[in-house]
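It is worth pausing here to work through a concrete case rather than discussing structure prediction in the abstract. The textbook approach is simple: state the sequence, then state the predicted structure, then interpret. We follow exactly that order.
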Amino acid sequence: MPKKPKAIAIVGPTSSGKTSLSIKLAIDFNGEVVSADSRQVYRGLNLGTGKVTTEEMRGVRHHLLDITNTDHRYTAAQFEIDATTAIENIHARGKLPIIAGGTFFYLDLLRGLKQTSPVPPDEKYRTSLDDYSTEELFYKLQQLDASRADSIDKHNRPRLVRALEIINVLGHVPKATNQDSPYDWLVIGIDIEEVQLHKNIHKRLTDRFAAGMIEEVEKLHKQGLSFERMSELGLEYRLIAKYLQHELKHHELLEKMEVKNRQLAKRQKTWLRRDKEIVWLKPDNYEEIETRVKHFLHS
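Step two, the predicted structure:
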C-alpha cells in the first residue's frame, strides 16, 4: 500500500501557544498553516478571536482566515471542504500542512469523524429558538437527546441550535462514525502547566484589551453586527456586547472574561484528553517536539 501523505495538527487549551508552535514548525519543516477555528474565518473578528497578525506569521502562509463575513454562518461541512482543498494544495506544492486552532471538532472531521445528519438548515426553526438563552437551549437538548447533550459543549450556541434542528427532523442526533482518514496524522498536544496557562490567559487578554478589543467590537456593531449575532460568536463578543449594553461594568468585564477563559481551557483539556492518539509534549521543550516531528516525517 502506498504511504499516506503526512499532516500535523497542534491542539491544546486556549492561550497554550498553538499558533506560535505551528508557525515555528512551519518554518523549520517547510510547512503552511491551516486554521481550524470557527471564528477566525470571519473578516473583522481579529482581537476578539486572537487572530494571528501578519507580523506574527513570520512569512508563513496561512489558510482559512478572513474568508467570509459575519452575516454568513460558516458551517463545519464547509470547513471540511475548504480545509481538505487547502491541505491538497499544500501537498501539491511539496509542503507540510500544519493544522492549528481551537475548534477541535473541525480537526476530528479531517481525521475521519463523520456526523451523519442529512438535515438541511431550517431558518424558520432556527428563528423560533432566538428567544431561548443558551442555558435554556442546553436544557431543551437534555430533555430531547440526553446522549447528545452529554457530548456537546453546552456553551456553544450554534452547535446547540444545530443539534435541536436535527432532532426536530429526525427525533435524535445520529451517532458519529469513524472513517479512515486519507492522511497520516501526528497530533501534538501542548501539555502546559495550569499556573503557566492562567498567566498566559491573563496576559493575552490584557494585551488584547490594550490593543483595542472593545473598540474593535464597537466598530463592528456600528457596521451592522448585531448584539444578537455577537452572542453566537464566542464569549469575548458575548461579554463585550453585554458591556456595550451597560449590563456589565468595565472591571466586571475584565474579571468575567478571564474566569470564563479559564473555564473554557478546562473544558477543552477535558475534551482533548479523551483522544488517545494525541502526543502530549511540553511547550518549553522544543527539541523533543522537533525530534517527534522528524521521526514522524521519516517513518
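Step three, interpretation. The chain is about 50% helix and 10% strand. The chain has two domains: 6-114+178-215+277-297, 117-174.
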